[in-house]
Write a structure and sequence with these properties.
single chain; mainly alpha; 6 helices; 2 strands; 43% helix
Length: 252
């Protein structure tokens, strides 16, 4: 995903104003929502749909996504560029070290702060997440966009200015888009492992995470949220029951 907004204070102000105007013109019925990004007035809201079937749920794009503005390129200092390039190469720690390091990172005290789990009752055999090259490139580009914004927000030319906050908010929005991309990949993989066509479960690609707190299946006093909302799980189980029933019917 490309961040094509101009970062001057004038364009930031006009973007926010125009965003409010659009929302006033197309105001929808209020519904309960959870934010996957920052909770500022400029951050998009993406959360539980107001229809259980998920048919009309489409994750929102970042509010400041503008295609008519040319990308601004910001120079880093020599030391900052060395650090950025080292991160851009990628990091591949040993598996156990990776798990320990990630496990010790600070996190928001909420179930939404960790990756969703897949209900064991609907987990198929040989579940594999398969990406096309185009999908992998899009996720890769999104990660680089987030890395760019974080590096710029910490640079000597941006730190302490209004742009620092804007860059970090945009980083949250990009990461939110990537979270949904991975959510869809995992859902599709789960259904394919169960040999259920994606078209039989409405909202698989469009519906965002519900963030409903559930008891952790393995750890006491820990909570998780699920990859599939409860109503989707019921639909999946109904399809599986129908398939089993059809298999058990005698053939004449």
């Amino acid at each position: 995903m490309s961040d094509r907004s101009s970062f001057s204070s004038r364009s930031s102000s006009s973007s926010t104003t125009s965003g409010h105007s659009r929302r006033e013109r197309h105001r929808r019925p209020r519904r309960s929502e959870e934010s996957l990004g920052g909770r500022s007035s400029r951050a998009p809201l993406a959360g539980s749909p107001h229809r259980e079937d998920g048919l009309n749920v489409v994750p929102q794009a970042p509010e400041d996504l503008k295609t008519e503005v040319n990308r601004e390129r910001v120079n880093l200092s020599e030391d900052e560029m060395v650090s950025f390039r080292n991160f851009a190469r990628g990091t591949g720690p040993e598996t156990r070290l990776r798990e320990t390091w990630f496990g010790n990172l600070p996190m928001v005290n909420d179930v939404a702060a960790a990756a969703p789990r897949l209900d064991r009752k609907i987990k198929g055999k040989d579940m594999k997440v398969v990406l096309s090259e185009n999908q992998a490139i899009q996720i890769h580009e999104g990660l680089y966009a987030a890395l760019n914004l974080l590096a710029l927000s910490s640079s000597s030319t941006i730190r302490g200015t209004d742009q620092e906050v804007t860059y970090r908010e945009r980083t949250e929005r990009i990461i939110s888009v990537l979270i949904h991309d991975v959510t869809v990949c995992r859902r599709v993989a789960a259904l394919e492992s169960l040999k259920i066509p994606v078209t039989e479960i409405p909202g698989v690609r469009r519906r965002t995470l519900d963030l409903k707190s559930e008891r952790h299946p393995h750890l006491d006093d820990e909570r998780v949220h699920n990859l599939f909302p409860a109503d989707m799980v019921r639909e999946i189980k109904d399809v599986l029951k129908a398939k089993e029933s059809k298999k058990s019917q005698p053939r004449w």
